From TrEMBL:
<comment type="similarity">
    <text>Belongs to the enoyl-CoA hydratase/isomerase family.</text>
</comment>
<dbReference type="InterPro" id="IPR014748">
    <property type="entry name" value="Enoyl-CoA_hydra_C"/>
</dbReference>
<dbReference type="InterPro" id="IPR029045">
    <property type="entry name" value="ClpP/crotonase-like_dom_sf"/>
</dbReference>
<protein>
    <submittedName>
        <fullName>Short chain enoyl-CoA hydratase /enoyl-CoA hydratase</fullName>
    </submittedName>
</protein>
<dbReference type="InterPro" id="IPR001753">
    <property type="entry name" value="Enoyl-CoA_hydra/iso"/>
</dbReference>
<dbReference type="Pfam" id="PF00378">
    <property type="entry name" value="ECH_1"/>
</dbReference>
<dbReference type="GO" id="GO:0003824">
    <property type="term" value="F:catalytic activity"/>
</dbReference>
Amino acid sequence: MTDVEADGSVTASRDGDVLRITLDRPSRRNALSHSMIETFVDLLTDAATDDSLRAIYIRGAGADFCAGADWVSTNSSGQRPRTGDLVRRIPHTANRVIELVHSIQLPVVCSVRGWAVGLGCNLALAADFTVAADDAVFWEAFVGRGFSPDSGSTWLLPRLVGLARAKEMLLLGEKVGGSDAADWGLIHRCVSSAELDDVTEQLLTRLASGPTVAIGLAKQAINHNQHATLDQAMTQELFNLELSCRTTDFKEGLAAFREKRAPEFGGR
């Protein structure tokens, strides 16, 4: 096996105005190596400033989505890392992936088959829309391995499913299947494995044909207003409204309404 195959890769391709990202290390359930995470951060950083993009799609190669960060390889050298290694490194690697998915002003869609564990689970939770197959399993495995949760899990889970269920997943390490994840509001939707690709593509098409600036600003306001008072939230909405009303898509939306037809948004 070559070093590239052992370390895995994160590949990206353009499909019109959709960026398709694949976590490609199926022999390790797409566990993310250091090099994979670095590539992932670079791809998302570039996407954040690419005005030609209108949506991002993230999937895993093979039967699983992502088994998290590859802690086995990271700790197999036998050499003790320098004190403070995690504090120095993780904000720029695993945490940065979650921050970018959460904050990028483009809709992010994940499709999940099989295992979504640790960082992989939190990546799916940070996305705007996660569609899971009915064989999917979401697992925050941190405490069961003897260390505390990271990559945003203690922020994401209580907001999505409430404290009681967040503690089930984080403190007890309970695994959650795709159907329960959808019922709990952890993800957007659960479908059969045979339907997963079609349902995901329909969602991507809908998002990529929408008013991209308005969608991005709405996402920004939702995130900002998790910490805001009502007055602060409405003020943020006003600033975003001022920006979105200056777009070509806003003019198209008004014209379509007047002419009683479906709008054709260009993402500008």
